[in-house]
Model the fold of this input.
Amino acid sequence: MRSQKTRWLIYGLLFIAIIISYSITIQLKVTPSPFVKKTFEYMEHLPPQSVIIISFDHEASSLPEIKPIAQIMLRHVFRQNIRVIGMSLFAEGTAIGYDMLTKAAREFGKTYGEDYLFLGFKPQYISAILGMGESIRRIFPEDYLGNRVDSIPLMKNIDNYNSIAMVISIADGDRAVQWIEYAGARYDQKVIAGLTAAMITTYDPYLNSGQLYSLVGGLRGAAEYESLYGKLGGGNRGLLAQSVAHFFIIILIIVGNIIYFKNRMQSKGMK
Amino acid sequence: MRNKLPLIICLISGLIMFLQYFSKHPVSRAVYSSILDWWQIIFAFTLLVGAAAFVKVSLKGLQKKGEGKYKAIALAGVVVMPILAIIGGNKLGSPFLWVFENIQAPMQSTVFSLLAFFVASAAYRGFRARTIPAAILLISALFVLLGRIPISEYFSEWFTRIMFWIQDYPSMAARRAILIGIGLGSLTTAMRVILGIERTYMRGE
Amino acid sequence: MEIGAIIAGLLTLAIYSFLYKDNPVYKAAESLLIGLSIGYALVIFWQSTIVDLLVKPLFGEGKLILAMPFVLGLLMFSRFSQKTSWLSRIPIAFMIGAGAGVSIPAMLYARTLKQVSASVAPLFNESGALNLSEMVIVIGLISTLSYFYFSRKNEGAIGKVAKVGTYFLMIFFGATFGYTVMSRLSTLIGRVEFLLTDFLHVIK
Done:
């Protein structure tokens, strides 16, 4: 029962710490990390009308972390007049991707079919990634809204990765790995990943080897991107709460260890 | 027949998909593209089978005392989404997307966010420097926790620098070793599967 | 207040009630989530694959070759009968074989050779001097791999190298734990943001 109460106390304190720190409007300054800068610079220098694929390879569960990353990257590409082909290799990413892409496009007055389109979802990801290297319209004969891909102006001269400048996989798992290992290795397709923080270390070897062009990771990555973009949003809003929550966890670890060592010394003393 | 036919099919599809990697011949590309299409279609059927199995199990559970009402709720959820999609389509503003955005997605994120509480509890209870490896793990975690928040940058940029070094060198090296290990393991497993030595997929009918 | 936000807010609280203890409200919300997720996936799978890649080309455009994957797909349903369930091995074997075939070059080239090359190539800089940080990677890689070398017992020199490998692994696990904590907290912050802004309107 005592351990149950301790657990409730920890839950309660964490919840209160986040509520209070989120309610305080202090804007923290973030220094963009090298890979976020690299991503931003890439988009800045990509010629207008270039075509990129943004694949929403995540589930709804990671939405609070993924959304700020996807939103700021979408805003940036539309500001740069880059054309976007949206798609998803996760069923839940389909509705989310379509929603975010459409809202960002409307914000910038973009036209569906000319400046952007959403292809929808394919369940077998390896088959889809490899198949798109041969023919995108073969894998996606129709877009998410049921239009024939052949009739969409944006797809006029696009049939495979040869016309795609970059694939951005917004992922909460290892789907971006498949983009790297199949589209990257076989078709020389450049890949950028927008990831949840938990996945960052998984992708470090690919970044180091150059197989992954760059990445934007977690809420912090979104905040860094927003600061480079010049308009703060969802990433920056949670920074203070994130800092306070980190300190809370660190304090828990320290207190837990103090109690552990104290008990160990006491039991040694008794022996 | 029951064992040989699947093994032969596995061998053929595996060999074709392996060998086509080295060929740019139009026939090879056409066969490759066709197999990719077929793979996609068959894979979609696996979900249909999964959904049918879920409905079957839930229907059985309807009569169970206590559990029945929860099974009914789950079944209602399975039925309601296709109905909404048939009635209103899947465009922005459709009832189908409305339910996804206002019911399914928030619940999904909330379930996932429960992990934050459990992680906090685990940090207090289990994250102890009992041994040297455990202490190393703890220090590495602390550097990441401190190095990735903006407040630490106000005190010293060294937290961030050390954190990035840890991430880019020793941590990355270990992850790379795991990756290579998985790569070599997957490679040999793939060969064993194609040659019919590895047959675990034949079980569990 | 928007009805969607009210429903989402109430369901969020229903899920959080699990933190106190398992209860009927949580169980009901959980069951609803499972059902909706399957229903949603059914719609998306049906529309994006079965209709787009099978029904329309096969029955609308007459691409008869697609009858093959159609039949193979239907064989998956044989699992529901004990007598016929062996038939489901055929489509499974097809998919497993195809997956194994395409994964061989990917695993060999993209996952193994590229990673080895990225570890060794930058070891010496252009002037021929040893790069110490890159040396850390090579030591970490070799020692961690020797930890996973199970063909003989981790004793003697191999044992010592493997022990160094465990330290590298601990650094990786620690860093991953740190990032995972960060990730989970971000998700919680996202939900708190929703509760305070869209649901309770405490913050604008």
Observations:
- The helical segments of chain C are 3-16, 24-60, 67-75, 89-120, 132-147, 156-199.
